[in-house]
Amino acid sequence: MKKKYDLVAVGDCTVDAFIKLHEASVHCDLDGERCQLCMSFADKIPYESLTVIAGVGNAANVAVGAARLGFKTAFLSAVGADRNGEDMLSVYHREGVSTEFIKVNKTKPTNYHFVLNFKAERTILIKHQDFDYVDPRTIDNKTDWVYFSSIGEHALPLHIKLGEYLKKHPDVRMGFNPGTFQFKLGVKKLKAIYDHTYVLFVNREEAARLLGTKKLDVPPLFKGLHKLGPKIVCITDGPKGAYASDGTSSYFMPPYPDPKPPVSRTGAGDAFATGFLCALMYGLPVHEALRWAPIESMHVVQFFGAQTGLLSKRELVTLLNKAPKNYKPKAL
């Protein structure tokens, strides 16, 4: 029986205010990592521009991206009963994303985040409201795929209910990209989520953090993450490329060649997840999904806003056909 939706995304959404900084500096450790954005203290600091974008967020971006790639999607989230909340719902209606599972909280303001952009990188000031959400078990038999990502630190009950839903519907495949507060909750509290994850999306440092190790060698990371439950594991490594494993075969994928320097890397990870997940939903194997994902990432970072550069299927396939001959996954 055909389901009502191809994908239901679950997570928080927000209004992002992009503040492009002019006067700042970045200080990193000797390895060029663990960098800090530094500005003058107790001073008036000019900025170049302000761009406000409604309806974004990790899961929201994937819901919109999947809709643009041709899938019927819905979004389970929450907004406040304010102008920002109305703007968010308008975005989803315009993008063809169903708001059936979005709960309007009458006494809470809509999430509002500040994105400090300096060069191509960003630092985000976040605050997740303690929202009430639609019970994810009401999704019931309405979809074959779920995508779950960043949600507020107060939402542990939602995780428990989602775990119960996934246990009841073992044929539902879920993509999971843990957010800030989900990392804080830890693997044990979210065991039911990891147990029923079909595709796990993390970056290299996050993979090590989940496993409680400082070692960043990819093969052992794959082995440890598969033991948590995921059937497929994707490990991104920023502009260096990405890795994927299905438990039997594993691959490295170089980035799609950028036509120009990135404007903002906000949303690059969500775009990667969008391309990879949607390729699987179209029935493509892991190594082909690895060819789709970097194209989405490459295009998104050419624009401000995590959704502006999300592609249609025709646009993605056109870029795929234009890819150089060496744009293909390499077996590890």
Number of helices: 10
The biggest beta sheet, please? 10 strands, mixed
Q: Give the CATH H-level superfamily.
A: Ribokinase
- What percent of the residues sit in helical stretches (DSSP H or I)? 25-40%
Give helix and strand order, one letter per element, not per position.
Answer: EEEEEHEHEEEEHEHHEHHEEEHHHE
- Please give the radius of gyration in angstroms: 19 Å
Strand content bin: 25-35%
The third-level CATH topology is: UDP-N-acetylmuramoyl-L-alanine:D-glutamate ligase
Give the total of domains.
1
So, CATH architecture? 3-Layer(aba) Sandwich
Report, as a whole number of angstroms, the end-to-end distance: 39 Å
- Structural class, from secondary structure content? alpha/beta
Instruction: Just give the CATH class.
Output: Alpha Beta
Tell me about this structure.
With 332 residues, this protein is an alpha/beta fold. It has one domain: UDP-N-acetylmuramoyl-L-alanine:D-glutamate ligase. The chain is 33% helix and 26% strand. It has ten helices and 16 strands. It has helices spanning 58-68, 83-95, 156-168, 180-189, 191-195, 204-211, 218-227, 268-281, 286-300, 313-321, and strands spanning 7-10, 14-21, 25-27, 36-38, 47-56, 73-80, 97-105, 112-118, 121-125, 145-148, 173-176, 199-203, 232-236, 242-245, 250-253, 330-331. The strands form three sheets. It has a ten-stranded mixed sheet, sandwiched between helices. Helix 3 (156-168) links the parallel strand 10 and strand 11 (173-176). The chain is globular. The model has no long low-confidence stretch (mean pLDDT 93).
